[in-house]
Amino acid sequence: MQLIPLGDCAVLVVFKASSSTLALAAVSSLARSLKAMPLTGVTDIVPAYTTVAVHYNPATVVAGNVSGGPFETVANWIRTAPSAPPAARRAKPAREVVVPVCYGGEGGPDIAAVAARAKCSEAEVIRLHAKGVYHVAAVGFSPGFPYLLGLPPRLAMPRRTTPRVRVPAGSVGIGGIQAGIYPTATPGGWAIIGCTPVRLFRPENEAAPTLLEPGDTVRFVPITKSQAVELEPAPVEVAATAQSTPPNAVFEVIKAGALTTVQDLGRNGHQYQGIPVGGAMDRESARVANILLGNDENAPLLEASLTGPELTFLRDTWIAVTGADIRGVPGWRPWRVSAGQRVSLADFTRGAFAYIAFAGGLDIKAVLGGASTLLRSGIGGWQGRALQAGDCLGAHPNTLKLAGNWSASAEFNSATGDDVVVRFMRGPQWSWFSAESHHAFVSNAFKTTMRSDRMGVRLEGPSLQLEETRELVSEAVGFGSVQVPPDGQPIVLMADRQTLGGYPKIGHVIAVDLPRLAQVKAGAAVHFMEASIGEAQSLFLKKEHSLTLLKLGVRAKFLRA
To answer: Is the entire prediction scored with pTM above 0.85?
Structure first.
């Protein structure tokens, strides 16, 4: 096996095997072994076809272990994993799951293109696709998305040159030699040949939120459109929060702003089920906002994008606003607000994301281990959605007394301007790209586009091309992975990124520069500058040290009654 840095917060273990069956066996064995011998600081273990990704927090790994730097510590731990885990930890027996599919029509817009490429009729595409027996090799990309082996070779279909911005939930697709099903509406580049009414993502079931797991087998059964309507499941609500005004309400939303959601630092431990980490786009600003109030760094707070909300406060409290600069709003320090006070956070003068923390932290029920809002999945946060006028949210009780007038250092403010330079490490597929693309990536400016969102910052600039046409078997991605689809325009994956992806990764933006990238607006220029794993992790640890000092300083300023 080969160990490759996936940025400065993950290791990608790559297996070379003579067959996909042998590779999958090695992947499954390693993933089970690593889970059986946990390492302090490791947050996720994500198996795929020929790879296992190990995500970790460099600071926690260093604090909890003494065997060297963060990357070396994790790499040594992986190398010492036993080749075969205890029998008690072996995978559960495989299940067969039958998935009904309504092929073609509005739900299968690409079936004609698949038929043309296969040189057969659409009816033959349906017969071949439903004839196969598929094995779940991995679950990823989005919550519950199964990557399926067993597609008849004749139906293999290259990914779209430019991914669709939205693929409907239930879409059955083909990506290269893989088959898959989109559990929720997400962007995607696969050829869509049908749609199923089956729910693959069930967040109300915390013990088993995904229908399919690696090792299961799947059979597709053709159904008619009327049968699909009959099989549509009843809507299921995830009880994330109460619908009425909570007794500990701290504010009411008067105007919601462009996009205001509840976030925290995200969900860890679920990426193997395809559930994104999510959380704040600018994690540093979110952490500082909570630190300024003496909250836990992971306490739920508001994230506002481009234009913030207008709030009326229902009781006296303290708030802290960080991230984007907002006209008329004191930032980066505790701010006392009174019952009845109306505060507008609408006028951003610099930056794209602002964070509003409340003393005690927002009172939000965790879903799948986190309070962050996953909009595409409709879970977490406040009723799984963005805030609306009339919403009233509560905060945990607190009694804080502030000593003096102070603010956080400007070193934590990533909203420093429109154009940015971000450092990157070479991605796992760096060598796949041409020398011209390498030069263009580091020598030219790329412009952020209006199509950027919480899932990824989409860039326009020189076309980055492979030396030769190659298909990548889907593997793990991370916060900062720079994917390049066939159109040559890079996408930097951000907070709501998928867990697995099939586009080659030319680079990976290092963790300390992700807040700066998150704060750029559409039209800003982004320049890439290369850094080593040692440099990246040294900068990471230095930043963590600064945050620790800030936390200690805040504790000296606040007195709890």
So the answer is: yes
